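*** Protein under study ***
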Amino acid sequence: MAINKEEFERLMNEAWQHEFTGWDFDFIRGRMLETEPSWDYRKIAADRIRDAKSLLDMDTGGGEFLASLAPLPAETCATEGHPPNVPVARTRLEPLGVKVEDTHAMTQLPFGDNSFDLVINRHGSFLAPELGRILKSGGRFVTQQVGGRNCQKLNEALHAPPDFLASMWTLDIAVRQLEGAGLRALEKKEEFPATDFKDIGAVVYYLKAISWQVSDFSIEKYYDQLLEIHTVIQETGKFSVEEHRFFIEMQKP
């Protein structure tokens, strides 16, 4: 099959130039197709929120996910550590009564001991001792995490070094950290759902947004490898990878 390099370069450049704000992947909606894991994190979080009087959403991004769970408890806070996302999150969440804290460069959360009935965390980082500190007795931590083996086929196809977290961030490691902070596991699951990239622009946009996947990514540096991925998509209709997801629900005694 003859490869149209003009189309190849147009798709890549369009993706590279498109602004990425908050945690919004609408630009590649329908072009990057993710298979959801067997659990429904949104439903679980919504169910737990109904019984909570105080809620914290960690690493809220642009606040998109938290806003989608409204109505929220009267005492709801959110944190965000990526400075460009903070004003986006505040614009979206403050009208809902949510206080957004900028946690850039912080090692301790800006909340008192025993502050929250529920802490949720979708694809964000956390320090287990801090969760043990801010949760009330009986409070729960509900998280869906991106594991260290996420989309490693992309790194392999680009001949790029693997994510340094590969083999370092797994369900077992996370659970051990949280148990070490005094929490007990209520439920835990780990899966590797498939994701299909339908065009090379979606690949470039993903790698631009998820900058830690390939830390030195640029179109120029990886041009030849991107062309190989584009060829696979042209021939088969997709470039498939495995994501790495795990779910944990913990409770403070």
Observations:
- Residues 63 and 93 are 6 Å apart (CA to CA).
- The domain at 5-251 is CATH 3.40.50.150 (Rossmann fold).
- The chain has one domain: 5-251.
- The two ends are 62 Å apart (CA to CA).
